[in-house]
Amino acid sequence: MKLTYITRTSISSDAAQAKQINCMSKAFNGILGENFTLICPGESPYEEIDHKTIKNIKNIGLRTNLLLIFKIFFIRKNMFFTRDILLASVSATLKKSTILELHQPHRSFYTKLLFFYLVKFTELKFVTISNALKDYFIKTYKLSAQRILVAHNGVFSNECIEMNKIKLRNELGIPKSKFVFVHTGSLYKGGHEVYETLLQINIDNIHFIHVGGTLDECKKMSDLYSHSNRISFIPHVHSSEIIKYQMSADALLYINVRTSPIYWCTSPLKIFEYMSCKIPILGSNVGSVAEVLNNSNAFCYDPDVPKEIQYQAKELINNYDEAKKRAANAKEEAINFYDWYSRAKKILDFFD
Fold it and tell me: How is the chain split among helix, strand and coil, in percent rounded to 5?
């Protein structure tokens, strides 16, 4: 079996899409070795990948599109995997065995029309990142369920090792005496009102740390919450630092709100990173996140019900032995069900 992952996305980006492509490429390469090729703009962080980089292209444009289409024409006896509907349409039209990975509904008239065109090609299969998204594509485009594989995102579970919490807190300047909730991620996606609800909990020694966002965004949020000394906002840091903040926590906070346009179909990388940390999770499980988080591996809440948010937070704090059991369950599930290598294996099997 030979597989080519082809994309117009620059994998040098810090965006979640680039990270996901890099992780899947590493997993495919780990299974297939020299039979795997990644073709894309940007530079892969994984040196072991046979990476046919398109050189000297800073912006995605006509030249990039033509180069990638040209490569699809002349690569023979390979299967193709992509998140790019344009490249999938070229590959499928050429009767090449192809899987298109879908992360959200198509919104533009062009992509919807193109997808209706693609459905007729039986050589083309699909991967969705949630059951909810699979159901959407079956209902909207009359797709056969047999042509769609559900595969949530994942984590390299063996790469998350236990760290000394006291040393981490000394390094990061986090008080050792506090019960610390850490949230890592963007600020622009909304849901910061959850912080206001949590700050009303009448427990003195808790502290909340948000890591992510621009310097200006964090300053605005610090000003907004200047009435409380129990919350800190830290701008974006490198992924090697993010894991330190996560592992320094007593609990990890996940926020997902219904105002997000993809809350119902998403599969956030952060969830699986959290699960792999073996740190108790306080998480919103509305929408498709409920396919992963539940009350056996996390403390779940509805973000629109403030009393429930506070109740679940206090349950986690006051029943920490139970919280550690649920964290252990989450870690086990990350290893058994959400490892990138397992995901890649499922997808390769689906080609057959």
Answer: 45, 15, 40
- Asked if residue 86 and residue 197 are part of one domain, the reply reads no
Contacts 24+ apart (CB under 8 A), 159-164: 160/243, 160/273, 160/276, 160/277, 160/278, 162/247, 162/278, 163/244, 163/247, 163/248
Burial label, 296 (beta-carbon count in 10 A; 0-12, 13-18, 19+): exposed
- Same domain flag for 193 and 333: yes
> Do residues 136 and 179 share a domain?
no
How many other C-beta atoms are found inside a 10 Å radius of the C-beta of residue 142? 9
- 180 and 305 belong to one structural domain: yes
**How high is the pLDDT of residue 56?**
46
Question: Which residues constitute the domain of residue 333?
Answer: 157-337
> Is residue 332 included in any domain, yes or no?
yes
More confident residue, 292 or 186: 292
Name residue, tokens 């870690």. Answer: 331
Residue 344 lies in a domain: no
pLDDT digits (tens, 9 = 90+) for 65-83: 888 888 888 888 789 999 9
Please check whether residues 175 and 126 belong to one and the same domain. Answer: no
Q: Contact 127/245 with Cβ under 8 angstroms? A: no
Residue 55, pLDDT above cutoff 60: no
Q: What pLDDT, on a 0 to 100 scale, did the predictor assign at position 188?
A: 65
Residue range 286-338, pLDDT digits in tens: 999 999 999 999 999 999 999 999 999 999 999 999 999 999 999 999 999 99
Enter the pTM of the model: 0.93
Residue 74 belongs to a domain with what CATH number?
A: 3.40.50.2000
